[in-house]
Specification:
About 60% of the residues lie in helices and about 5% in strands. With about 170 residues, the chain is mainly α. It starts with 11 loop residues before the first strand and ends with a helix.
Length: about 170
């Protein structure tokens, strides 16, 4: 068996029946995402590329699929920060007419947060702007069914009115 050095001897040491990992200037993805996302107060044409780079820093839930009770608050706070940042980014992408990038981002968010009406609203906006009446109807009715089945409620009056207005625009064309 060959002994291969991984360069860990300098950063891992044994101490008090355990191990200590000493890293100099480590890059921690969630800390970096939070710092950068909070720095970018608004997103527009001048910084949308930077915002996309920041979004890529988000690699998923804190601790992955491990649910530590002691970290629940921080895990949820981090997920809310990502969702809020992504909605702002998607809205900026829509205003810049990059429907493809906005749609990908929103579909990813919708998968994680299927009850988030702000995500559905932006997806409806994209369906309208791309002339996808069928997609708009499928999206809205699917969301309405999900709310009814899972929560026993209907979409907000605002969302229903938006849907009806957008569909009526298609009918007038």
């Amino acid at each position: 068996m060959t002994n291969i050095s991984l360069g860990m001897r300098e950063v891992v040491r044994s101490e008090n029946d355990g191990y200590v990992l000493e890293l100099k200037d480590p890059v921690i993805d969630y800390v970096e995402f939070e710092k950068q996302a909070e720095k970018l107060e608004s997103i527009d044409a001048s910084n949308v590329d930077r915002a996309m780079q920041i979004e890529w820093l988000y690699t998923g839930d804190l601790f992955g699929d491990k649910a530590y009770v002691w970290a629940t608050f921080e895990t949820e706070r981090y997920a809310r920060l990502y969702a809020s940042f992504s909605v702002k980014l998607a809205a900026a992408l829509i205003s810049l007419r990059d429907m493809n990038a906005a749609s990908k981002l929103l579909l990813k968010l919708n998968e994680r947060y299927p009850f988030d009406e702000s995500v559905v609203r932006l997806l409806m906006t994209i369906r309208n702007q791309t002339g996808d009446k069928k997609g708009l109807t499928v999206l809205y009715t699917g969301y309405a069914r999900l709310l009814s089945r899972e929560l026993g409620i209907r979409p907000s009056e605002e969302l229903t009115q938006l849907y009806e207005m957008l569909v009526s625009r298609f009918d007038r064309k």
